[in-house]
Specification:
Mean pLDDT: 95
Strand content: under 5%
Number of strands: 0
Largest sheet: none
Number of domains: 2
Structural class: mainly alpha
Number of helices: 12
Shape: elongated
Low-confidence stretches: none
Radius of gyration: 18 Å
Oligomer: single chain
Length: 191
Amino acid sequence: MDEEVRALTERLRRESGGTAAYERLAGPAGHDELAGVLVEPGQPLWAREVAAFRLGLAGDRRAFEALVLLLNHRDPPRCVSAAYALARLGDPRTARAAAALATNELRAAYALHPVRLLVELRAPESVPALITALRRRLRPHDPYRRVALACVEGLGALGDHRARPVLNEALAHPVLAEAAVHALARIPAQR
């Protein structure tokens, strides 16, 4: 079992108190039952997360909205599990949603996992969104250095020449300089 799935399972079992409802959702519940949890009023967050995660891994697009909400959650472990499931969901809306979250300046504190998801997806939206997010993080005294670093590393991994200008700007920031050098080295020279 993947480490992410095991960590999610343990965390949600603790949150639920190990109830029979948790065991059902984590085990024998079918897709329709899981999808019902996502729309039923009064469901606890742990139940919605279990349902969305399982549906996402199964490629059931009914999980999309719930997973996007969890990707934008203030609790990092929920973001991690949502990103994991979204990367496996196969929904064409995922990259656009992740790009919107990564570039939403009002939610910059929660942009780390959408940025990482964009890198994993390697979608057409990925490079433009990472460039935009990084450019905003290059302001003096920006508090979101982890997001900036994820953008730099992601742009290097994607290896797109459009990232060169913003990565060159990142060289001037001591916290990002080393990562920017490595990222620039990964971008093939243009002919």
